[in-house]
Amino acid sequence: MKDTRVIRQIKTLILEIILPVIVFGLISNYLIGSDYLLHKLAQFRPPYKSNGEALHVESQLLYLESQLRNKTEKSKVIFIGSSSVVAAIDAVRVNEIWEDIGVKKKAIKAGMTGLFAYELPLVKEYYLRPDVSCIVYMYNSWSMSDILHDRFPFSRWNTSEFFRYIGIGHPTVKQYEYYALGAYSEIFFMMKFRVVLQNILGSLFRGTIKKREHDFDHAPNSLPLKGKRGREYVKPLSSDHFVRAWYLSSDTDKSTRGYRGFRRFLHLAKENNITVVVLPVPEPEFAKYGPLKQGINEARIDKRIRDMTEYYEMVYIQRSETAFISEEDTYFWNHAHFQDTGREVFTPWIANRLMMIIDGDEL
User: Fold this and answer.
1) pTM above the 0.90 mark?
2) Cβ-count burial of 332 within 10 angstroms (0-12 exposed, 13-18 middle, 19+ buried)?
3) C-alpha to C-alpha distance for 157 and 126, rounded to whole angstroms
4) Which letter, b or e, does each residue of 276-312 get, where b requires 16 or more Cβ atoms within 10 Å of its Cβ?
5) b (16+ CB within 10 A) / e for 132-161
6) Which residues does residue 276 pair with via DSSP β-bridges, in sequence order?
7) I want to staple 85 with a disulfide (CB 3.0 to 4.6 A). Which of 81, 237, 327, 359 is the partner?
């Protein structure tokens, strides 16, 4: 009788738990996550909405995954960073410039809203690929923060890397929930992209689905251009303000999760024979007078990052090289993002600047 009960329990385990998980995994990863459907879904990803952060981040990753799965004989150069990179780089234009001068590389933009440096090892699946030869990491003055996201980390997640190298600290209940979701998202395509998939399916049923024609947060020429900004200091925000805290943490603490994550990122790239080019993403001069960045020691942050970059024998581009861009207010929409005018200047500059590195002159 005891043996019969054990057999029934085993059958229940197989039929009600193991088999459904296997079926779900096959549908999730090999049907919905197939190359064909992925490329189709990425074309209809939703437009940016400021109140839909999880949706926006998943949309960015869906498009990135689609781009990376495109077959090409050219090796890939990944531009990675925050939404500042989304606004700063026109990957289509970079590829046109390289094509014109015979460079056999393909630029892929991997801008991810709010990306901290501690997340770089967590998204290694997007750059540790056989066809990736170079990573261009463009950091913000706040990127090296010690603060953990509590909003959308589950779609940018690697359990092993996080617990081995980043550290959990004192998480909130909400963060525990996200970490569990992150572990599921590592395994199942439909879990990783569940919010954006729901949105696309809902748009299809409502008849409002539209193909997205660009890879920027805002469509080109859709934002009103801003002009000259003032140079009077305003009262800085409290250190408790979540964005102000990002800047302060990156500046005042040299042992943050951000710096640890950045070091691990360099180690992974070197281990896989991938060249890394590191540079600060151009930020406007007027931001130094504003409530978020005021008093932040950029030189101190840059030195720490440059020292680590050069220790791993990678390439560091000095902030001074893009000073001519930072000084021009009309190139920027706000304290961290380019307008179209700025992108039109920076994109050809970085495409041509990377030529010296791709050709091996600085390696």
Assistant:
1) yes
2) buried
3) 11
4) bbbbbbbbbbbbbbbbbbbebeeeebbebbbebbeee
5) bbbbbbbbbbbbbbbbbbeebbbbbbbeeb
6) 135
7) 81
Neighbours of 317 (CB within 10 A): 20
CA distances from 354 to 11, 154, 348, 363 (A): 59, 33, 10, 12
User: How buried is 76 (Cβ within 10 angstroms: 0-12 exposed, 13-18 middle, 19+ buried)?
Assistant: buried
- The pairing of beta strand 132-139 with beta strand 75-81: parallel
Residues 247-277 have pLDDT tens digits of 999 999 999 999 999 999 999 999 999 999 9
pLDDT one-digit tens code per residue, 275-300:
999 999 999 999 999 999 999 999 99
CB 240 within 8 A of CB 248: no
> Which residues, at least 6 apart from 360, have a Cβ–Cβ distance to it below 8 Å?
none
Q: Is the pLDDT of residue 89 over 90?
A: yes
Q: Provide the terminal-to-terminal Cα distance of the chain, rounded to the nearest Å.
A: 72
* Cβ atoms 357, 277 nearer than 8 A: yes
d(CA 213, CA 215): 7
Note whether 222 and 47 are within 8 A (CB).
no
Residue type, 223: L
